[in-house]
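Many introductory courses stop at the sequence. We go one step further.
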Amino acid sequence: MSNKCDLSKEEKVEVICRLLYQAPPGEFYSVFEDLRILVQEDDLMRQEAAQVCAHHNKNNFTLVRIEGTNVLVTRYNDLGGNRFFDPKHKFSFKFDHLSGISNKFQLHRVAWDETELWRTALNSALKAYVDSHFPSGDCCVFRKTLKNRQVFVVCIASHQYKPLGFWNGLWKGEWTFSQIPVIAQVTGAIHMQVHYFKDANVHMTVCKTVEETLHVIDPAQLAIDFVKLIETEDNKFHVAMLENFQALTDEIWRKILRRQLPVTRTIINWNKLLTNQSIKANISSHKVPLSLTKGTV
């Protein structure tokens, strides 16, 4: 009886896309290569993976290193046709999502008006905060027009990829508010995703939404108050996560295990235990000469 399962092209596409969409941050290309080996249809893989990879990169605020500076790839600076722009350095570039190669650089004109003045003040204050709290992270403030209103979108991303340590992680912040005199209604979302894959396969995704009001006086004051808000909410989120981890750990060790065990919280070396047991079994199976037992108490 054959175990071979022949899938139609449509079924293959569905499976490929579903698995690629589930790829954790920093692991898309590993998942892609594994699937490519299984499917053995490179043209189909590249055709379907390109769109999913673009979604993966934009959704996770992927960092692209260009000429010594970091640029976030997001849906907010997407010009279409795989072109993205950097509002700080005023240039755009073509980005190949599958290869990670950027090229075809061009100047990107940005109107230097009052809105850009506010955006620059926000970006400078936010950059200082991110540099001091997220060593591997970066940020950017984008300006968008929504229903004839100027809207600021703040993106923060910190990627930690440690495949040799068997884990990868992403911290992402996304904040939005419109430029309204006197009061700014701020909405934000903090997102953390971790994948641990040593001796287990653990995925964790945690999100928190925030709504707050800020008083608007001038660009400098708004930038300071906005960064204080982000720092406060980030700290609350961080503390809550640590408390939940501790509570979860205590719950596992005290209640979920069938019996009480020494709480060493270290990984058991099962190979060493089995080796020791094997040695003891071999020793006990041999008779000890009587001459060696004389004089013993």
